[in-house]
Amino acid sequence: MEDRYERRSRGEGSSSGPMSVEVMLRRFFRDVQQSEIMTEIKKRRFFEKKTSRNKRRAVAQVRAVRRKTKRGY
Length: 73
Description:
The longest helix has 22 residues, at 50-71. The chain has 3 helices and no strands. By secondary structure, the protein is mainly α. 59% of the residues lie in helices and 0% in strands. It has one domain (19-71).
C-alpha cells in the first residue's frame, strides 16, 4: 500500500519496457537545459567583480526600460 504513494523515477513503471539510451539522454539533456544549470556554470566560470556585476545589471535595467517604453507599456 505504501509503495503506491512513493515517488518513482522516470524509468520505473513504464509499460513499454526499459528505455533506450537515446531517450534517457534526450530527457537528461532536456532536464539540464530546463533547470538552467549550464547557464549558471557559464556565468560562474570566471570571477566577476561586484562593480562589474552592478554595471551589467544597470545596463540591463536601462535596456528593459527602453524596451518597455518603445512597446508602449
